[in-house]
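Pipeline run #58 for the internal structure catalog. This entry was flagged by the ingest filter as a single-chain record with no existing model, so it goes straight to prediction. Upstream metadata was stripped on purpose; only the residue string is passed forward. Reviewer on rotation: M.T. Logging verbosity set to normal.
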Amino acid sequence: MKSDAGVAGALIVDGRVFQGSHGLAGELGHIPVSLDGDVCRCGATGCLTTYIGTRAVLEKAGLGTSSSPQDTSAALTELDHCLRTGQPLALAALDRAGHALGAALQSLTGAIDPDHVVLGGRLADWLPWLRPGIDARLAPRRGAFPACSPLVRPGTLGADAALHGALTIGREHILADPTAVPKRI
């Protein structure tokens, strides 16, 4: 699972990316985590991305919602500093995001029963501040079903996680039907 502007993910089954019937498997950003949450750009309310997407976290941390990549980069650097120095608004933003992610993981656990959840990109960087909220939301499920609780851990691909995922999907698509690749003249 990865967060940049929104939240993306992939479901790995038997070592391969599972895309679902319509290619939407892994579209975790639009799992509802609150019935009365903020309105999402998809038209629904309370989607995970409205809690843990980069813009949502920056806004709740009091660091703005600019769509400019330079402004977002500067705000993320400031957020990192605020988290490391214990600034209350930044900590509250990540606590809120952690609880929302924990709620999404409850749904995910009930639907597909994963062994592992790997957080990539910023979510991997933010895991120390997300984990308390995740654990608080998963604690009742872990108590009721101790063997059926996913291990949540950071990924190792860093900022290139989305690129690796896109390359994997593209490669699998080409290998599944090499004739679908357009010829260059």
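catalog note: The chain has a mean pLDDT of 84.
catalog note: The chain has six helices and six strands.
status: ready for reviewer M.T.
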